[in-house]
Amino acid sequence: MGSRRACEELIEQSRVEVNGEIVLEQGMRVDPDMDEIKVDGLTVATQSHLFFALNKPAGVVSTMEDPDGRQSLGDYVTNRETRLFHVGRLDTETEGIILLTNHGELAHRLTHPRYGVKKIYLAAIQGPLPRDLGKRLKDGIQLDDGYAKADHFRVVENTGKNYLVEVTLHEGRKHIVRRMLAEAGFPVDRLVRTSFGPIPLGDQKSGWLRRLTNTEVGMLMKEVGL
Q1: Closest by alpha carbon to 125, among 179, 165, 76?
Q2: How far is CA 64 from CA 22, 77, 95, 172, 213, in A?
Q3: Taking the CA of residue 109 as centre, how many other CA atoms within 13 Å lie in the half-sphere pointing to its CB?
Q4: Is residue 27 left, alpha or beta, with left meaning phi > 0 and alpha meaning psi from -120 to 50?
Q5: Which positions are catalytic?
Q6: CA 195, CA 110: separation in Å to the nearest integer?
Q7: pLDDT tens-digit profile of 149-207?
Q8: Closest CA to 193 of 219, 173, 167
Q9: What is the number of H-type helices and E-type strands within the chain?
Q10: pTM for the whole structure
Q11: In 3-state terms, what secondary structure has residue 141?
């Protein structure tokens, strides 16, 4: 979380908890494998757990390895001794943020419908768009496996017939954004997931893997009640 002095200041400011109790003394000994440590209410990750965000390029399959020899997520995390799980999936041609971790319970909760973790996508489609498209998406689109509803919709950019739209939803069904827009009459030319829960893609370059900060891990934990 910071230098030793910075962490001492966090303790002085009563911002550090161990197992639900505010830490009052400097130099308190803890076992990071057994004790739950929080700063400002957010869980601090121990080194035994790994958390990464990958900006998945188009054409990469969302598995750690592929029996058919196609490029997979595992190609971006070579030389890692610990087995990582991918948190949910992205369609092969869809780009953007995908999380990788060896924290099985976190991975499970982040993808479980019960927790309703929201994801934001940018989709390139061809217009013109009817004014009620957002309402239709939020009211629900009938698909072959049931209704699908967007939580939010907005037009980000429009040049002639080219539209860039943002769709927010908490569902995780296969090809869900592509299917919703196609069913509404607007096939997707390109799709990028720009955030997963509280973690934004930001300016992370395509194909780049980065380790999540302790603050980001804490935000993910809080999102799903860990």
Answers
A1: 165
A2: 40, 9, 16, 19, 22
A3: 13
A4: left
A5: 91
A6: 13
A7: 999 999 999 999 999 999 999 987 889 999 999 999 999 999 999 999 999 999 999 99
A8: 167
A9: 5, 15
A10: 0.79
A11: strand
